[in-house]
Specification:
- Two copies of one chain form a homodimer.
- By secondary structure, the first copy, chain A, is an alpha/beta fold.
- The first copy, chain A, contains 16 helices and 18 strands.
- Chain A folds into two domains: 110 residues, Urease, subunit C, domain 1 (Roll), CATH 2.30.40; 289 residues, Metal-dependent hydrolases (TIM Barrel), CATH 3.20.20.140.
- In chain A, strands 1, 2, 3, 4, 5, 15, 16, 17 and 18 form a nine-stranded mixed β-sheet that branches.
Amino acid sequence: MMQSVDYIIHADYVLPMDERLTVIKDGAIAVKGTQILEVGTSEGIFRKYASRAIISGRENVVFPGLINTHTHAAMVYFRGIADDLPLREWLENHVWPAENRWLSPGFISDAVELACLEMLKGGVTTYNDMYFYEDAAAEATKKVGMRAVLGAGILDFPTKSASTADEYFANAESFIKDWKGDNLITPCIAPHALYTCGPETLKRARHVADTYDVPIHIHLSETRWEVEEIRKRYSMMPVEYLDSLGFLDERVLAAHCVWLTDPEIKILAQKGVGVSHCIESNLKLSSGIAPVVSMLKAGVKVTFGTDGAASNNDLNILSEMSTAAKLHKAYSEDPTALDAKTALLMATRWGAEVLGLGRATGSIEEGRAADLVMANLNKPHLTPMYNIYSHIVYSMRPSDVEMVMVDGRVVVNDGKLTTADESEILYKAKEWCKKISTSPFFPQGPY
Amino acid sequence: MMQSVDYIIHADYVLPMDERLTVIKDGAIAVKGTQILEVGTSEGIFRKYASRAIISGRENVVFPGLINTHTHAAMVYFRGIADDLPLREWLENHVWPAENRWLSPGFISDAVELACLEMLKGGVTTYNDMYFYEDAAAEATKKVGMRAVLGAGILDFPTKSASTADEYFANAESFIKDWKGDNLITPCIAPHALYTCGPETLKRARHVADTYDVPIHIHLSETRWEVEEIRKRYSMMPVEYLDSLGFLDERVLAAHCVWLTDPEIKILAQKGVGVSHCIESNLKLSSGIAPVVSMLKAGVKVTFGTDGAASNNDLNILSEMSTAAKLHKAYSEDPTALDAKTALLMATRWGAEVLGLGRATGSIEEGRAADLVMANLNKPHLTPMYNIYSHIVYSMRPSDVEMVMVDGRVVVNDGKLTTADESEILYKAKEWCKKISTSPFFPQGPY
């Protein structure tokens, strides 16, 4: 008796990214509702399951949806607004004034749609965000059908979204209560950074995380300036300081981690802190190069983040993998460092794990949500094919992604978004761009 | 009276990459035969010229065809054959045995078609190659309609293509004589490197270049090992040694240039030697990071090369620009280094100049060959648009390229090759791959 399912997904190669890093040639996946029922050879799956729909193709590969563990999604509307500038000029004369002038729930909602569109088309199924008006971000993300961990940034100074610590925390707690338990949106608490949040704010954020059992998202040791600043204020290195506050454990996702000492790496490993490596942003802003190989050796789970599109300038995890896997070979003077399998693991299963979503997504295994990507291998830049991991990490591009499923729903089909109108999303972005670039607040004339 | 032309190309933005780095909004280009007649505003061009065909579109940009100044095109057939390995193991146990087993004019011809297909679809209109059986490469390149500078590698030891110095040079001279004056193919002389060619071979290559007035293509200071080797043999640094032989001038394109001293950079600048920076290959093979910012400051014309696809693993100059422009900001600790305009200049006009093709291609100006790219800006990852240079360098992907013209001929239209059958090129590559990966010479089992 055949078991009935909603989808059978059939591919030349299935990479479940399970513990054994199996590669299934001529594989298939049975999906029922939001979940993966079984993954195996196509022969076995087709013998056991009857499906209302079969998603197939020739010369393709299926792997888990990619996880972007650090971004500010709505910043896509500031993509390319100010490039090739010193960090402080970029922030103080361009990014902050633009944010101060333009951010609103309406802006966030429209901008997040564009960010989700870009990410989904590039095979990213989950993102971890820290920005403002996350309620609008959550609605937009859910509408488009993407998975996200969202937290509004908490700072010790007023921004458009809140004026006092109490207001920031009240907003954060009400956001957590509203969204906790949602199938796609995981609320989190997001104290911005050590130089923008004093110890009381950090401890309070930690307390909220424990109270509501939600993840913590924080920037950590992105720039040399920031590390010096923390050392001046607290006479400790940033990780040691956080540890002294009782802040660190598996609940914490620390973005950047560029300027770490060996003892700090050891603490991150011991406490099980997850790291989001944002190589393209760190390079472009000249922040520095994170000691990824040392972190991996110490047992730290390093994952990939794009950071915001104002400093990247895209939300492309395929490219983050490729850049990082190549760069750390040169940086560690070891051509075997950060091999292709490890890079894909960091971008999938580990990404889910560091966000507290390890049981929900990140691999193609029984009981996980059906979050997966099908890519076409019949492309000049993917021909010939000797090694599937190498192709995904070093050669694959977003345009190779043909089908994306999130939580059992096909959200990209034949390379096109199914859940919203792409041209409307682009149209809204252009209207916002017109307003932004013709405003007296615009810091430069567009070409 | 309107002047009749073959094409008017009309775009929202035209970047001629001329001396003034003009940006023409609502621009157009008149093309007659192989040449650009005029570039200007669309109003001016449409008033003056009548065209049999108009190439247009909404929300697009036209810029000069990108120049790949260092590759081994046929190595696309070894894409991903061996990754994440130490350099010597990669070369000695994988690449050289594969080359020794498989290279032939037939292999080169089929593989070069694939390489040209990949490059053209990514907006590359000219490549500079050093490999074997360049006659087959020239025929294939010409058939597909791409521009190339080609030179068969000359070494002091036998390979499949030649056994003695005399044979290498006889082959090279006959190749030069056969192709000199061709509209698309420029023959060159390509002594492989300082550690594989003794001083007599280098001087002889230099003499051939002068005799026939052709460019010289050589690998230079790619690895630390190689620099040490040259110092041991000749008690000089590699650039000083080449200079002592009278080898260096504007005719020379030196690939890699990773391990240079400041005095060597000064010599390269004084002699007008062109450099091909192969950042992705240098990172992936852990060769090191070239001092590009210092070279640019010293006045060296640095351009971009992909190297072969066995060490990259694609032939994507858009990505080389992006990686280099970001990386050198972090490496030089200066976020203003290698800005987007400079990166595009290096990938276009300078690329042509260092190959001795500065009067033929590299910019969209009157009298230049019509080698140009039209890309679609109406994409999620290119929206919104504040700065066109930034978009091309930091966000554009090969899949955004819609039309490519080489020497006045449309070779890519609507993203598809017009000059050969794409599926046949891919089919041939897969047949070769089957042979290679099932042979006892194959160094690893494919997944």
